[in-house]
Specification:
This protein is an alpha/beta fold. It is 36% helix and 19% strand.
Length: 267
């Protein structure tokens, strides 16, 4: 068992990770406010920050907005590994993006993620894991802290209004929160370092995932054509990570997790 500190007590990812990992490792969950003054942070094998400053999402980079850098700077030993949750948005949107793919962040959020990556890599290269994560699918309805909308948020908002978009041949890449937690567990168990994509690693057509998420919706709805055409189609190449952790991560498991989520959303 490893000692794991998860930061982000009120957030969807932090709580989900804690719920999954607490049966497999010695895990502590705390808020960023408490963690920044936590004197025992260097006693953990892994530190995972899931908290985010709202200005980090919306504004240009400032060190004062960077929760990850503030926490990483508290690590003073050569044992503790910092896991940085980056974003697939730092890449140019295209098929089969490897970790060496073209970096082309567009928003302040993605530019800030890339800036943090560079700073952390320079300072903590040997004790650092950078995870570039695709769209996470999960139920955020019970979490009050929601700094930005996800694909599921937008879907559920429209579905409650009786609208389902026809996304035609548009596709993206996804990972369920269940599979994400399983992958984090294996990264910890394997004691990995480096930069990795986290995704299902293939095209997931939006009409398919909307169909799965809407499966248990008994209300009538109308299909609205999405007229913007192909926008931001991409999928990540996840072979580098999957070759090391060797777990099942396929379309059928994503479909199953989406159907289970649909049951909860529309119960």
């Amino acid at each position: 068992m490893k000692k794991v500190l998860i930061i982000g007590k009120r957030g969807f990812i932090g709580k989900s990770l804690h719920k999954y990992l607490k049966y497999k490792h010695k895990v502590k969950l705390m808020s960023f406010k408490d963690a920044i003054n936590y004197k025992l942070i260097n006693e953990y094998d892994f530190v995972i920050n899931t908290s985010t400053n709202k200005d980090y999402i919306a504004k240009k980079y400032k060190i004062n907005f960077d929760n990850d850098l503030k926490l990483a700077n508290k690590l003073s030993n050569k044992k503790t590994v910092f896991i940085f949750l980056s974003s697939r948005k730092i890449y140019k949107a295209e098929p089969n993006i490897k970790e060496t793919g073209k970096l082309s962040p567009k928003s302040n959020y993605s530019k800030n993620k890339l800036m943090t990556e560079k700073i952390l890599y320079k300072k903590f290269k040997n004790n650092l894991i950078i995870l570039r994560i695709s769209n996470i699918i999960g139920d955020k309805s019970k979490f009050s802290k929601n700094l930005h909308k996800t694909f599921v948020d937008i879907f559920y908002e429209k579905a409650k209004k009786g609208i389902i978009y026809n996304n035609k041949q548009n596709y993206k890449d996804f990972i369920s929160i269940q599979k994400f937690c399983e992958i984090i567990n294996m990264i910890i168990r394997k004691n990995l370092r480096g930069i990795y994509n986290i995704s299902i690693g293939r095209k997931v057509f939006l009409n398919d995932i909307v169909k799965w998420l809407n499966h248990f919706n008994k209300n009538k709805f109308k299909i609205v054509n999405y007229d913007k055409g192909p926008t931001g189609n991409f999928y990540l190449n996840n072979r580098k990570l999957m070759s090391k952790i060797k777990i099942s991560n396929d379309l059928e498991s994503l479909k199953k997790d989406c159907l289970n989520l649909s049951k909860r959303l529309f119960k």
